[in-house]
Amino acid sequence: MDSTSQPTPAAAQADNTASVDRTAAKAAKPLRNPCNLCQSVRAILKRPKTGQQLCRECFYHVFETEIHNTIVDNKLFNKGDRVAIGASGGKDSTVLAYVMKLLNDRYSYGLDLVLLSIDEGITGYRDDSLETVKRNRDQYQIPLLIVSYKDLYGWSMDDIVKEIGRKNNCTFCGVFRRQALDRGAIMLNVDHIVTGHNADDIAETVLMNILRGDLPRLQRCTSIITNDTSEDSSGLETSKILRSKPFKYTYEKEIVMYAYFKKLDYFSTECIYSPNAYRGHARVFLKDLEAIRRTTIVDIIHSGEALSASVQANESTKLPTMSTCTRCGYISSNELCKACLLLEGLNKGLPQLGIGHTTKIRRQHEAANLASGLSTPTSLSSPSIDGSRSTDENVKVVTHIKDLGRLANQPTLDIV
Ligand code: SF4
Ligand code: ZN
To answer: In what residue span(s) does the Cytoplasmic tRNA 2-thiolation protein 1 C-terminal domain sit (predicted)?
Structure first.
């Protein structure tokens, strides 16, 4: 064997040492852009809320743990609670359903989870998003109930928009949705509804309520948990359903990131009857502020909380006393709840009735009552108004929301 082709033992040892050194140098080479938490994996994202650079697993961990801490710190649930997740198929409620199930299993909350969806009857939007909710039902193995405006009120949003145009449609939709969620919760026999309202939504609502000077709503929107008491018209049944927002401090951008990295199945199209112009302006304003100062969203929520605490402490700012609607039994500070007032307007061809209180509308209302043989009311909330039972053949008679037992048998109820 040619001695030149064979390394001497000393040379071979030198080669081995060099190779070990190279490996060690490679191993010791600092990781480029490491995760701020674990330091062992490259960061792949910058948290919008804190600016921390994190790897995927650490992001999941902080995101989920913050929501768990919000739930625990605010004592949102008791073991054994039956909780409905308000599900629209959008990113917020899809992530909420996923995280609620995950945390319920991880921390043994002992919750009985169900999905509750509202079908407003918006062709080309809600019908598609409800398909997403049905897939989520199967993916997460959580039962689903869908309740529709058409069943509850006799009107879909498509019908309402045909009637009133696209000006006040969101007012009708918002009032009807609030009641529909409660009605669905009663059908499901749940103690609690969680919704996917995130920190950005709440900050926008705080801004809007401050700009409108609406203090009762300011209080409501900043509370993480609210309590509605409603009573059946017979006065026999009282339902007490809590509502809470586990995403109160969760940034919208982080919800989108979480859904994206987890590859969750959600629906991302805007409602065809949007935009709600006022909220749109508040949103743009908020995003501009956030671009300058990252903590803007949480700062506005904290300001809203402080303001609402001072409203509560100020005796001169009395909140309306809550009673129940004489027609449907829903919680209301007036004789008729807002949904019944809006329905009355729709059924009488006076859709402005519940929107404004101008003399012209009032005159139209009185004229319609005279035409239908009803006595002229002295006020809009007078007990003499009974539009849903009007004898006028031109007035659409709706089956109202009292008869929940009947609704439970409707074919559109998709209960699993
Ligand atoms: Fe209803 Fe308006 Fe929302 Fe559409 S944008 S779902 S009409 S509240
Ligand atoms: Zn990490």
So the answer is: 324-353
Alpha helices in 273-388 (DSSP H): 277-292, 296-313, 338-347, 359-371
Q: Supply the Cα-derived Rg of the chain in whole angstroms.
A: 28
130: number of Cβ within 10 Å: 21
pLDDT tens profile 344-354: 888 888 887 77
| Residue 289 token pair | 């502020």
Question: 239: which DSSP letter?
Answer: E
pLDDT at 353: 74
pLDDT score, position 19: 53
What does the pLDDT look like over 111-157, one tens digit per residue?
999 999 999 999 999 999 999 999 999 999 999 999 999 999 999 99
- End-to-end alpha carbon distance in the chain: 81
Q: Cβ of 404: how many Cβ atoms within 10 Å? A: 15
Q: Is the CB of 280 under 6 A from ligand 1?
A: no
Ligand 1, closest atom to CA 157?
7
Spatial separation of the C-alpha atoms in residues 123 and 280, rounded to whole Å:
23
Least confident of 173-187, 267-281, 381-395: 381-395
Tell me the CA–centroid distance for residue 250 and ligand 2, in Å: 20
Centre of ligand 2 to C-alpha 50, Å, is: 15
Domain extents in the chain? 59-313, 339-407
The model's pTM = 0.73
Q: Is the CB of 168 under 6 A from ligand 1?
A: no
* Amino acid identity at 191: D
- Residue of the nearest CA to atom 6 in ligand 1? 271
Q: Looking at the structure, give the CATH architecture of the domain made up of residues 59-313.
A: 3-Layer(aba) Sandwich (3.40)
Secondary structure percentages of the chain, helix, strand, coil, to 5: 50, 10, 40
Measured from the CB, is residue 120 less than 6 Å from ligand 1? yes
Dihedral angle sign, alpha carbons of residues 119, 124, 125, 131:
positive
Q: If you measure from the C-alpha of residue 167 to the centroid of ligand 2, how many angstroms do you get, rounded to a whole number?
A: 48
Both tokens of 370, joined, read 């005279």
